[in-house]
Amino acid sequence: MGEHPDLTAAIRRADPGALEQVVRASLPGLLRTARAAGLPADRAEDIVQASVLVFIRRAADFDGRARATTWIHGILARKIWEERRTRQREAAHDDIDDLVESRFDLNGSWERPPDGPVERLVRGELGQLLAACLESLPDRYRVAFTLREVEGFETGDICKILEVSANNLGVILFRARNRLRECLEAKGVGGVNDAHL
User: Radius of gyration (Cα) for the chain, nearest Å?
Assistant: First the structure.
């Protein structure tokens, strides 16, 4: 389902009121999606701002076939992938050595053994575990999962944002949920049902 013709026309002529309406309606979801993609808060805000600027600059190109919020989320998704590629190129070394050194002593024993799931739940770490597992997903899986499960976008809109078919999106979401379940189980959270992810 596309955008209303009157709003489409107002966006195309860069009407300030229409642009503000779209940005205000989209902004909370854009920020949540950028944060769910694993960007630090300040970087997420920068990427969202850059996406909004592209939306405003390219307003005349908006054709109304999709909702304006879908279009601006598509811009955000491309900005996130650009950011990811840049960060991956800038990562100069493998952090696994630092991780091993911080967790194990010279004899290979735990410096501090990990807690079980009950202890972590009591300490409120389940949300952090889920965030870490979400961070471990490939970008496309993470963004698709966030758009569907956090932002509540419909399949058709997500397909437009990610430029994939409905079948491909189904596979992406299936794999994202399974990887999240496996990651949480590997972190000691038992009984994770992917139907609830």
Answer: 20
CA atoms within 13 A on the CB side of 21: 11
**6: pLDDT strictly greater than 70:** yes
Picking from 169, 159, 171, 173, the residue whose alpha carbon sits closest to that of residue 67 is 159
* pTM to 2 decimal places: 0.62
Domain membership of residue 129 as a residue range: 115-187
- Strand pairing partners for 104? 110
**Residue ending a domain, choose from 55, 90, 125:** 90
Query: Per-residue confidence at 61, pLDDT binned at 50, 70, 90?
Result: very high
Claim to verify: residue 14 and residue 86 sit in the same structural domain: yes
Residue 96 lies in a domain: no
CB of 53 within 8 A of CB of 79?
no
Calpha distance 95→86 (Å, rounded):
17
Place of tokens 């979400």: 134
Alpha-carbon gap, residue 36 to 127, rounded angstroms: 12
Q: Which two tokens stand for residue 4?
A: 């209303």
pLDDT tens sequence across 80-122? 988 877 776 665 444 555 655 666 666 666 666 665 655 555 5
Same domain assignment for residues 79 and 123: no
CATH code at position 59: 1.10.1740
pLDDT band at 57 (very low <50, low <70, confident <90, very high): very high
Instruction: Tokens for 51, please give them.
Output: 């996406």
Domain final residue pick, 55, 74, 90 = 90
